[in-house]
Give the backbone structure.
Amino acid sequence: MRGKIMQITGVALGDFYEITAHISQVSYGGNVMVSSDAHVISRNRIAARLRVADSRGAGARTAASGRHGPYACWHAYRDVLSELFREHPRAIVSTALERYRGADGFESAYPATAYRNVGSQLYPAYMPDLCVTAGCGEERAGATPVIIPAPRQHEPEDILVRIRQALQEAERSRPETYFTGPDSLLGVPDLAYSDR
């Protein structure tokens, strides 16, 4: 979420600062704040993102690579947006991971963002696992819990069928190559003379 700024419709910039400051004090020891690049886009729309003062403190996360920076964690975004939608249930928030239309849209879509890979295919990383402090995201008093659903389970046969289909498709689309050069001293085609 660090790279892209959120666009929020239906909430004033001052209100967003107040909501963030409140959640930061209650749950993150004042470490979470609105980034200095927050600004008003139009009469009813703002652009903002969260950051942390201490990259090793409460509400902080690392990048998928493990690098520390002023990145607010998945739980801090969850808590701030949950409070935002509690106070402004018809707001619309667009983040790098999802677009939330109102409080119901947020409650139904945000938990699934925990299972979006923000790393690479070789080294997958998931936002809730990047938190710097232990116990990050513990339920705060009086907050409505956000239930994170289990990832979709595939039957082993379903996965094997899809792998076989992908391998067959790759085999069909493999280009054919023809060698047109002379044989090498060992009697095999010399690829140095190949047209490819």
